[in-house]
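Anyone opening a protein record will find just a pair of labelled lines. A complete record is shown below as an example:
=====
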Amino acid sequence: MSVNGVTGASDVYGTTYSAQAKGTETKSESQTETSKGTGSTSAGAVYEPSKQTTEAVNKKYKPDTNLIAKMKADADARTSQLQSLVEKMLTKQGETYGKANDIWSILSSGNFTVDPATKLQAQADIADDGYWGVSQTSQRILDFAKALTGGDPSKIEKMRSAFEKGYKMAEKKWGGSLPDISQKTFDAVQKGFDDMAKDAGINIDEN
């Protein structure tokens, strides 16, 4: 074999080995860099909240006084509505009762006499199933109270309180105790509130 042949072969193999070694070295360096990168990422993974998050946590809660005032005004308006309704409704019920029995309330002169047709209508109105009877009158009051609560059971006792105030206002306007039919209506409404609270799982004895 010629010297040139050996030299040529050596050159070829030498070149090949050198290329492979260089490639391996480059790959190894690349893996090392990747490993370093991965290692630094996994080992140094520390959560740092953004400035906005930090400010949000540190920011103290401030109540919306305007919204609170608006909600309170709305609640007061609702209870006033029920009080007014009860006052007018029970006063009217008493007046109708008076007409049916030829007795006018203290609001009139005391000498008022109703005509037969008005008396008959009044008697029908205060009957058990009449418009101003205990059942229908108490149910209208309860329906109105339910509407004002918006379905919120926590407002039941506020509505009850408003009803009681409205009843007292009606008595004051009437000039004393309301007729028996109105007192029965009072009891029926109170029972209705009790049932509403019971259905909502509220223990009325705790209120």
The two ends are 116 Å apart (CA to CA). Confidence is low (pLDDT under 50) at residues 1-28, 30-43, 104-110. Residues 149 and 155 are 6 Å apart (CA to CA). The helical segments are 3-43, 51-58, 65-100, 116-125, 134-149, 156-174, 180-199.
